[in-house]
Known about the structure:
The structure holds two protein chains of two kinds.
Chain A: H1 2-7, H2 9-27, H3 31-53, H4 71-77, H5 79-82, H6 86-100, H7 112-143, H8 148-174
Chain B: H1 2-7, H2 11-14, H3 17-34, H4 38-63, E1 72-75, E2 86-89, H5 91-118, H6 124-143, H7 147-166, H8 175-204, H9 209-216, H10 223-239, H11 249-255, H12 258-283, H13 285-292, H14 296-315, H15 320-340, H16 344-375, H17 380-383, H18 386-389, H19 391-405, H20 411-426, H21 429-455, H22 470-488, H23 491-509
Helix pairs in contact in B: 3-4, 3-6, 4-5, 4-6, 5-6, 5-12, 5-16, 5-22, 5-23, 6-7, 6-12, 7-8, 7-12, 8-10, 8-11, 10-12, 11-12, 11-15, 12-13, 12-15, 12-16, 12-23, 14-15, 14-21, 15-16, 15-21, 16-19, 16-20, 16-22, 16-23, 19-21, 19-22, 20-21, 20-22
Amino acid sequence: MLxxxxxxxxxxxxxxxxxxxLYIAFASTNLxxxxxxLGLFQTSIILLYTSLSRIDGGTAPILFGADYxxxxxxxxxxxxxxxEAGGSTIQSxxxxxxxxxxxxxxxxxxxxxxxxxxxxxxVVGVATLAVGLAIIVRIRExxxxxxxxxxxxxxxxxxxxxxxxxxxxxxxxxx
Amino acid sequence: MIDAVASLxxxxxxxxxxxLLVVLPMMIAxxxxxxxxxxxxxxxxxxxxxxxxVMACVLLSQVRSIEGGAVISYAMxxxxxxxxxxxxxxxxxxxxxxxxxxxxxxxxxxxxxxVAAEIREAxxxxxxxxxxxxxxxxxxxxxxxxxxxxxxxxxxSSIATYVLVALGASRDRRALxxxxxxxxxxxxxxxxxxxxxxxxxxxxxxxNMAELAVRLEAVRDSKAVFAGYAFIFVxxxxxxxMFPLHQWLPNAYAYSPSFxxxxxxxxxxxxxxxxxxxxxxTVFGLEFSFEGSTLIWVLMPMGIAAxxxxxxxxxxQTDVRRTLAYSSVAQVGYMLLGVAIGTTAGxxxxxxxxxxHALIKGALFMALAGVVLTYQxxxxxxxxxxxxxxxxxxxxxxxGALSLIGIPLxxxxxxxxxxxxxxxxxGWWWAVAVVMFSSLLAVVYMGRILEAVFFRTPANPNKxxxxxxxxxxxxxxxxxxxxxxxxxxxxxxxxxxxxxxxALFIGxxx
Lengths: 175, 510
């Protein structure tokens, strides 16, 4: 049992961080702290994806040594002359790597795809954080506070005042 | 008509229609942001959304060129699907794309008077840039065939939406907390979705949705797949404003600039529902979604709760925009109910209602934008007597309202009728009663508004005779006439919805 739990340590870390982040995002009344919670939540997802890509003994996913698809061609003909159009070289290198499959390579590589996905997710997270902070700055200017409950109280006052004036207006209209 | 538009486009351009539809607004957006003058940015966004609309027509005619519906697969950048990103257009995608681009085009045309009134001059070019980015994201979600790419497009549209909603602050500062809440909920929803996609990737090793569907067959009992399923369902549920997860919606709709409200109400939740349906039917498959996990008992109660509870909430609002926002959540309930029964007729009715609701809410919010522009207010009091002072705007509003209630000869009637038929066929006669009851509530909340508009004397007798400008009236009446046209001969949209449902079941069944 203990082994089962410890084996999946990174999942526990992921879920722990994710729940802490979610809790902060929901429970905190300070808007900045909410964004911090959101950031923690998003970062834990990065942890999940990168942990998916890891294999025991795996190294950075850059083909080297015997796996390098054009190792021979490059050493013999001098790299730059053999490369035709740049794009097709990449494409053929890719298809070569693909055709090796997981069994054909000599070295063990970790899966690069989740890392690449997470680069995108990081950009998305940064953009969200930037927009969120900009909105909080505007909230501070408009309300003079960044506490969600104070903002709610102010909005409630406005809403009650509006409803009262609305009722008055409709009375005037009826009369 | 669609084929005629499509035949005007040169063949080599039409071959790249899936990419152009999405990429064009994305490339024009930064250019629009650089424009010194909001009016130029406005014209640019009309041209761009118009071009996207033409591309959507091309795609639709390509899809419908083959009996039973073709599937267009477009390899982005020439990378073959499993390695690269695939854009995959079938009848459902084509329908959603057409919907988004029609609404986007009409919204772009009508936007100028309201934007000029509500957005500061220095911000207008940026405003249109954000609008184009939002449009890019929505069309991207509706055309991509890659699960992670769908997340990226979802976030592109959402982040632009947060900005657009927050810009309502110049009229009412409550737009800011509304945008903040929306940001929090929307980001949590998108993050849940991406966690779910991560689990699916861990179980299958692919992100391509068609490939996922094939590979998921083998790992059906894996706990990771179930976890991924739950995460995706909740994540997209937040984006689609599914009943208990809809709290961000009313405030965001009520306080954002009127143009933004109109565009979002007609497209944003629709696209999220499309993504949800796509995952439930195509990726996970009918068997997994509906038999393995008894989804029917999750979707159905939530749909019904939305139809009843949110209709009741709509009755008690004094701000008309909030009434319509709550009614939107209730209408999402109808669509979910149609999807929940999981028959072709049910899904087709759900999709039909999805399309019609975009026309209905588009018309209603467009008319309200006209009212905001001329009379600066959207409470029930402000609308009193407007039937006399601005008859054209308010007649279109009334057509939208009748269509929302579901009066015969309007679009709303056709799709509700299709839904009721599907429910009867499935044997859920009690659900028919619920649909009727919810429609009665719609009579109450829309009736209150119509009564104030047409049968009350203006609260403020000084209200001048003032019609919304022509730029608003023309797109407004296009939508209003579309409502009647679909209601009188519902063939076109119903046909699209049928094809879309059929495409889902072919994809899910194999």
